[in-house]
Write a structure and sequence with these properties.
Strand content: under 5%
Number of strands: 0
Shape: elongated
Number of helices: 4
Helix content: 55-70%
Radius of gyration: 16 Å
Mean pLDDT: 87
Distance between the termini: 29 Å
Structural class: mainly alpha
């Protein structure tokens, strides 16, 4: 029987914790008077959730050495998981009274990041594990 430990999925766990902190805390990164670039938050959302899907894919390859073949179905499940995570975060932000709000454009950015990662991460990760 396999033992499932958090260390087996450490990249995914760390990425999840960072996303939760950055999206659910009132002021996770104080700007300190630095002017904010308009729309940069959408770019950050795409990177965060692309990183989430990439971490899942990395852990999949790392923990499944005997059958590293990634099927389209598994890739779709990992991508949809990232999109659902992004949607849940936006709903939670809307429900919490912390000065943040849920945003459909953030959700679209989350899904865009997930899809881009699903297309670009597998060949990079495969190459890493071939070495």
């Amino acid at each position: 029987m396999r033992q499932y430990k958090i260390t087996r999925y450490l990249p995914t766990a760390i990425t999840t914790a960072i996303i939760l902190y950055l999206t659910l805390f009132p002021d996770p990164v104080p700007t300190g008077g630095i002017p904010i670039i308009p729309g940069i938050d959408k770019f950050v959302h795409a990177i965060m959730f692309g990183g989430f899907v990439s971490a899942i894919l990395f852990d999949y390859y790392r923990t499944n050495p005997s059958y590293r073949r990634l099927t389209k179905k598994k890739l779709a499940i990992f991508t949809l998981s990232g999109c659902m995570f992004g949607g849940i975060i936006e709903i939670i932000q809307q429900l919490m009274d912390i000065g943040r709000s849920g945003d459909w454009l953030d959700f679209i950015a989350d899904c865009t990041g997930c899809i881009i990662a699903a297309m670009t991460a597998p060949p990079v990760i495969k190459r890493i594990f071939r070495k």
